[in-house]
Amino acid sequence: MPLLRLDKTSLHYGTQVLLDAVDLSIRRGEKLGLLGRNGAGKTSLLKILAGEIAPDSGERWLRPGARLARLEQTLPQGDDIRVFDVVASGLAETGQLLSTYHRLTGDANADLDRLAQVQQQLESVDGWSLQQRVETTLSQLDLPADTAMRELSGGWRRRVALARSLVAEPDILLLDEPTNHLDIPAIEWLQEQLRSFRGALVLITHDRRFLQGVVDHIAELDRGHLTLWRGDYRGFLQHREQQLAAEQRADALFDKKLAQEEVWIRQGIKARRTRNEGRVRALKAMREQRRQRRERQGSAGFGVESAGQSGKIVAELQGVSHAFGEQVILRDFSTVVQRGDRIGIVGPNGVGKSTLVKILLGELQPDRGKVIAGTRLEVAYSDQLRGHLDPQQNLIDNVCGGQDFIEIHGRRRHAISYLGDFLFSPDRTRTPVSALSGGEQNRAVLAKLFSRPANLLVLDEPTNDLDIETLELLEEILLDFDGTVLLVSHDREFMDNVVTSLLVLEGDGVVSEHAGGYSDWEARGFSLAAAAAQEEAKAADAERGSTQRTAPQPSPRKLSYKERRELEGLPARIEALEQQQSELEQVTSSPQFYAGDHAEVEQVLAQLAAVQLELETTFERWAELEGE
Question: What is the pLDDT of residues 213-263, one digit of tens each?
Fold first, then answer.
């Protein structure tokens, strides 16, 4: 039985058909990747699934009692609300109680009567286990609970939004571009979390490696129709290529027959004789069918105009060191960037990737060391915050300076024609940038970036919000570009397909150079997650040593009455879980098990995984309480 179902659902925006009588069923344990071009309606479909907007026609059904959470594509506001409160808000009314309790316990002058009242309310709704869930989620994403949202960067605010979605442990999780603004360790952590997620998942992402690693079903939204595929992303690509070829052959045969019938109808009066009326009616039906055919949107067709060769040396750093306060970005780092290099710059968020780029470009002077700039450089620089666009101006004003014509590759082109290469229709060219989707804004950045000649491209997170087809075209353009490319990206597959070497910022000012792409670096046994864990362990050891020298060891905490009752009930709970695990393992070990219904097989396997996870969690809780 599905958790969520859409029946004959349609949605139109003006003349644009986003959904045309779409049917979709989502079952527990399914992990569905939703694909489609920018503007195809993926986010609108997600909002219909979430119940946030109503379709023009059709029915949405949600199983009674099913919990649903959605991660929006836009970042949370940078306001004064604390991280703990934002994450706890994913638990509705209980989350508000937890926020109040967290605030009161951190206030030395708190109202003790109010604190006792909140504690009582939390006990009545099993709030302590939910508090532990909030704190565990904060810890897993390394989030500072008492920090205001306005103090966080875009990547950290994205983590907070993820934590708010995950803390509710929903039956259905809807994620819209969850990897945007996340660094690679966070993406890898999220990938593992979603693999073990027991509920249903619907995921929109441009990160192909992340998509391949998470989903087991694919749905493609194309011209209002939803095509479903059981299997992973790579299998879907082969299936789609065969489908498109078959569609093109069918359309060609139809158009040929229609042309023959049009010749026949024009032969004269004999075409309108009574015995041919059926043929005339069939021709009219063919005309209507051809009129209603929605043609596949063309591919983007942009390119980069070379500005002529730069000098052989693009930039050279000699013994460069730089820090912001106590945070060391570079420590005695030397390197040479040569003409034609395609260098990927990777590292966790906040480690200083953009700072390194600015030092290489001469926009920022280091604290120590020498920076030698190359000659004849024509730089095109795109930052990840889209700061080059005025949100109040329209596309033509932003990209073409308000002029009707722009010079591209030495010839004048009409602004509307040039923007058409980036898949903007004529009516969208007069739309304010603030009204464009994230993917459209990123294409607008590329349109402005590529409107002038360059021999050094600096791209800071260029893949955010782009659809996969545009990503693949951008890869081809960068490979054909005869200049130098500096790329800051968390998209591992994009880097694999573009760069020839890596600069890895490992933290504490350490930068290492490696030949090849990101997968080549991983194959040598390196990992950003491992490097981040090592840095955290060093910091924890230093803090622990300082604490041991300056503070006495705290005495063991006594168990509360509720914790003692919980400890007494854990052995029986463990025994019941072990019995349930044994029964499920007997079912799955049967030779006939995997020959049964696919949905039932998946359901039993998901149940077994859930029992095993709960058993491990219960053992850990038992050990924790026994050690108090």
Answer: 999 999 999 888 898 988 888 888 877 777 767 777 777 787 787 777 777
What is the spatial distance between Cα 208 and Cα 493, in angstroms, rounded to a whole number? 7
Strand order in the sheet with 16-26: 16-26, 4-13, 57-62
In angstroms, the CA 30 to CA 599 distance is 9
Inter-residue contact 377 to 310 (CB < 8 Å): yes
Q: What is the DSSP letter of 302?
A: -
Going edge to edge, which strands form the sheet with 484-488? 379-382, 456-460, 484-488, 342-346, 501-507, 510-515
- List the beta strands (DSSP E) in 197-296: 200-204, 217-222, 225-230
Query: What is the 8-class DSSP label of residue 584?
Result: H
Supply φ then ψ for residue 513, to 5 degrees. Answer: -110, 140
Angle CA(82)–CA(192)–CA(89) in degrees, nearest 5? Answer: 25
* DSSP H or E run through 380: strand 379-382
Instruction: List C-alpha distances in Å: 112 to 98, 124, 128, 329.
Output: 16, 19, 18, 46
Dist. CA 477–CA 498, nearest whole Å: 10
CA distance 386 to 398: 12
CA 521-322-496 angle, 5° bins: 20
pTM above 0.85, yes or no: no
Residue whose pair of structure tokens reads 């060219």 in the numeric block? 429
Nearest to 344 by CA among 235, 190, 484, 181: 484
DSSP string over 319-374? EEEEEETTEEEEEEEEEEEETT-EEEEE--TTSSHHHHHHHHHTSS--SEEEEEE-
Residues 491-520: pLDDT tens digits?
999 999 999 999 999 888 999 999 999 998
Q: Determine the Cα–Cα distance for residues 353 and 482; give it in Å rounded to an integer.
A: 24
pLDDT band at 594 (very low <50, low <70, confident <90, very high): low
Residues 30 and 605: their CA atoms lie apart, in Å, by 12
DSSP code per residue over 94-137: HHHHHHHHHHHHT-TT--HHHHHHHHHHHHHTTHHHHHHHHHHH
Name the E strands within 198-268: 200-204, 217-222, 225-230
Q: What is the per-residue pLDDT for 59?
A: 94
Element (DSSP H or E) covering residue 511: strand 510-515
Q: How far apart are CA 19 and CA 11, in angstroms?
A: 5
Residue 553 CB coordination number (10 Å): 7
Nearest partner of 73 among 165, 199, 184, judged by Cα: 165
Distances (CA, A) of 180 to 162, 189, 438, 466: 11, 14, 11, 11
Nearest CA among 156, 178, 187 for reference residue 83: 156
Give the separation between CA 557 and CA 540, rounded to whole angstroms. Answer: 22
pLDDT(379) > 60: yes
Q: How far apart (Å, rounded) are the C-alpha atoms in residues 349 and 186?
A: 9
The residues that bridge with 372 in the sheet, in sequence order, are: 316
Q: Could you tell me which of 486, 226, 253 has the C-alpha nearest to residue 353? A: 486
Question: Which pLDDT value is given to residue 553?
Answer: 46
Report the distance separating Cα 160 and Cα 14, nearest Å. 35
CA distance 209 to 458: 23
Asked if 155 contacts 464 with a C-beta cutoff of 8 angstroms, the reply is no
